[in-house]
Specification:
This protein has 118 residues and is an all-alpha fold. It has two domains: 47 residues, no CATH class; 55 residues. Helices cover 76% and strands 0% of the residues. The longest helix has 55 residues. It is rod-shaped.
Amino acid sequence: MQRAIVQLQADQGKLSISAVAKLAEVTPGLIHNTYPDLAEKIRGLVGKATRAQRDAKHDALVHEREVNRALRQELAETRADLSKLASINQVLVHEVALLKGMATGKVVSILQPKGTGI
């Protein structure tokens, strides 16, 4: 089978697992199942190394998962900030309403000044 690969490369023929199997007078399934390293070598020579493609996709997936994790963390922090700011905003809205009412005379403070004793 090694000679078949060399012969196909020398003849400038199309290198594939099927072509090597035909030249070696075996089935492509035999190469795939019995000689997976040889099949991988042929794929590498053709430029379709599945392991390299799989590893590249896995690395890309790991990177995207890290990006996703960072974005989820940022989203959680932003939601916490939003909740805190909404609470502060509500307190300020009530305070503004109270001060506007006091300024127009419609709201009277029920707190007694210190020292009146009443």
